[in-house]
Amino acid sequence: MNDTLRFRTESDGNLPLSEGGFGSVHAEVFADGTDVYRRVHGEDRSVYLTGPRLRADRFQNQGAWFVSVYLATAESAVSQSSRSAQRTYLVTGRGTPEQLDGNVSNYTATAVVDADGLVRSLNVSYDRTTNGTTQLVSLAFEYRDVGNTTVTAPSWYPEARTVTGAANESPAFLIY
């Protein structure tokens, strides 16, 4: 993404929430050419975000941020993958990445990287123990339809456009 502000991403996971604890969430980001909107849906509610905090420069390298955090492990390996007709590489990481907080165990991360260096997918799973409670944390993303493609607005876009004011800056929960 260079100067283009038209893209759409979706991600699912059981991730730490800003309000504390963990939750299963579905997050979507849509840039309409002018502004960027984010919908985070978890449990029984959705939160819509827009405004300066969500400009494209924050999200254009989101995949790179996930890779730098979750593949920065003490143990890693690279092998050629046979998962697709295109030449790809499988990168696996074990051990705890430095940027993860808390007591982490059973950590695994797997990324599929194409011949051009684009991380096509990343899957992460680990157990985090906090205050004696262990929870499974998982994260996955996959890039599809990269290049010349038509970006369509999601069904929630009209509702997100009506969100204004403090709700944009103080969400009830926000994942990264």
Share of helix, binned: 10-25%
Radius of gyration: 17 Å
| Largest sheet strand order | 4-3-2-1-9-8-7-6-5
**N-to-C series of helices and strands:** EEEEHHEEEEEHH
Strand content: over 45%
- SS-derived structural category: mainly beta
Shape label? flat
Q: How is the quaternary structure best described?
A: single chain
> Given the structure, what is the number of helices?
4
Low-confidence stretches: 164-176
User: Count the strands?
Assistant: 9
Instruction: Give the biggest beta sheet.
Output: 9 strands, antiparallel
Provide mean pLDDT, rounded.
75
| Cα end-to-end separation | 19 Å
Describe the protein in words.
This protein is mainly beta and 176 residues long. The protein is built from 4 helices and 9 strands; from the N terminus they run ββββααβββββαα. The chain has helices at residues 56-59, 62-70, 157-161, 166-169, and strands at 6-16, 22-32, 36-42, 45-50, 75-81, 88-94, 103-114, 119-130, 133-142. A 9-stranded antiparallel sheet has the order 4-3-2-1-9-8-7-6-5. β5 (75-81) and β6 form a beta hairpin. The longest helix has 9 residues, at 62-70. The relative contact order is 0.22. Residues 164-176 have low confidence and may be disordered.
Task: Offer a few descriptive terms.
4 helices, single chain, mainly beta, nine-stranded antiparallel beta sheet, 12% helix, disordered C terminus, 176 residues, flat
